[in-house]
């Protein structure tokens, strides 16, 4: 081949290589350098507390990355705010509580589904009802019945936290009508107790143990819930339809992380360091916090959803008249496929 022709082909080859590299390195290309499959950015709404640890473990241990996803976390107080972000297309998934907002959003036909369980609680519960240490030590508030007529907080009215509070009040001989319900974000509860804005409040771990260490709170009740699923993983409809492979992969990563958190996982340094990174609570505090529990095979307890819907209906927080069937807001197909890929959980012996 003549030398001029060789030089021409070499120039064309080098130009093609440069264009290819520019495309590969382009921020909007959606492809990670050195990998052969696209990397999808998945925005996930969450509240940075202990119960959502599977999300943080899956990020830090690369479980989402292995499924072709780059997860971006979006923090909200929870409740309706989570669905507002999901419905607006600003997020693909939510890890959050099962509250009135879930059922109202489903009744309005918002495009989402519950696709897997979050956590469940067993005594001692990881979201206790707390009071100020001063009020407890002075004898002003020593039992749930002492809260009659007083202001008691949840992070979001109409949330799963309210369902927990209702259970704590009933166990202590009161009802929701016996207290004045107000909203206070979890991190603000100790200060609200100290300045008298509230007499008691629900406080999620590990913030409860941290406040206890600081002498700010005492636990008034922490044995009112045993095994009820009150949080879940939600997917937006667009994510499920356009990216079904990644939707299944997300749940594979979630299952792997839930299994990592079985047994005494919350006492291990590797796990507590991850929780510290995402909640801001020191690892040694996380180790002493009351741990949540996770369903290692992704089983959704539909009866719990029915109980929650009935509770919020009686509270007058639902915007519709007839109970929604589970199919209106639950889709188990993605979790079934994820479980087929992950295989059934075998506890360590």
In words, what does this structure look like?
The chain is of the alpha/beta class. It folds into 2 domains: 40-120 and 228-342, D-Maltodextrin-Binding Protein, domain 2, CATH 3.40.190.10; 129-221, 3-Layer(aba) Sandwich (D-Maltodextrin-Binding Protein, domain 2). It is 41% helix and 16% strand. The chain is built from 15 helices and 12 strands. Helix 7 links the parallel strand 7 (151-154) and strand 8. Helix 2 (53-60) packs across helix 11 (244-260), helix 2 (53-60) crosses helix 12 (269-279) and helix 11 (244-260) crosses helix 15. The radius of gyration is 24 Å and the shape is globular.
Instruction: Round the mean pLDDT to the nearest integer and report it.
Output: 88
State the CATH superfamily name of the largest domain.
Periplasmic binding protein-like II
Oligomer: single chain
Uncertain residue ranges: 1-35
According to CATH, the fold-level topology of the largest domain is: D-Maltodextrin-Binding Protein, domain 2
**Could you tell me the number of beta strands?**
12
* CATH class division of the largest domain: Alpha Beta
CATH architecture name of the largest domain? 3-Layer(aba) Sandwich
Count of domains: 2
End-to-end gap:
70 Å
Query: In terms of structural class, how would the helical and strand content be classed?
Result: alpha/beta
- How are the strands of the biggest sheet laid out side by side? 2-1-3-11-4
H and E string:
HEHHEHEHEEEHEHEHEHEEHHHHEHH
Query: How much of the sequence is in beta strands?
Result: 15-25%
The total count of helices amounts to 15
Main sheet, how many strands, which sense, barrel?
5 strands, mixed
Shape: globular
